[in-house]
């Protein structure tokens, strides 16, 4: 049914920062075989049409949802158009993109991984935004030989 919505409950490891996102089931299943299996199978997610992801930050999931609907990262385009010059902000954006890349690797979404990797490359080149916190997260949460690790080392 093209009008069926899935509720994604995002965040909440700290029980404070929780947001709900509503995404068309068709979009979710089309872009991720992981979601397709969970939402169409005999799993809790499929029965309730709710997917809880406590370890994902809402701002990271927002980037994913924006890409599902528009094929772009709206937040990044707005930041560039405002010409934000704070280096700390650029590090935050880079970190979000790195977290997004890890999430979509888990969800098996290669086209979005490519878009996130391109955004990471462009963002780091333009703003010199990589940092030790991003390095630590990437090396703690990716496999040896990961393209994201290679990017961090190259930057």
TrEMBL record:
InterPro entries: BTB/POZ_dom (IPR000210), SKP1/BTB/POZ_sf (IPR011333). Residues 29-76 form the BTB domain. It comes from the Eukaryota. Pfam families: BTB. PANTHER family: BTB DOMAIN-CONTAINING PROTEIN (PTHR47843:SF2), BTB DOMAIN-CONTAINING PROTEIN-RELATED (PTHR47843). This is BTB domain-containing protein. It comes from Amylocarpus encephaloides.
């Amino acid at each position: 049914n093209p009008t069926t919505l899935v509720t994604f409950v995002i965040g909440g490891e700290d029980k404070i920062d929780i947001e709900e996102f509503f995404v068309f089931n068709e979009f979710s299943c089309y872009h991720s075989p992981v979601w397709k299996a969970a939402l169409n199978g005999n799993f809790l997610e499929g029965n309730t049409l709710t997917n809880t992801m406590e370890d994902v930050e809402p701002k990271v999931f927002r980037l994913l949802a924006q890409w599902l609907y528009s094929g772009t990262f709206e937040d990044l385009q707005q930041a560039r158009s405002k010409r934000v010059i704070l280096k700390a902000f650029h590090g935050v954006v880079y970190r979000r993109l790195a977290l997004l890349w890890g999430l979509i690797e888990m969800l098996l979404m290669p086209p979005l991984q490519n878009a996130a990797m391109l955004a990471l490359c462009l963002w780091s080149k333009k703003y010199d935004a990589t940092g030790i916190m991003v390095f630590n997260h990437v090396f703690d949460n990716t496999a040896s030989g990961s393209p994201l690790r290679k990017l961090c080392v190259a930057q």
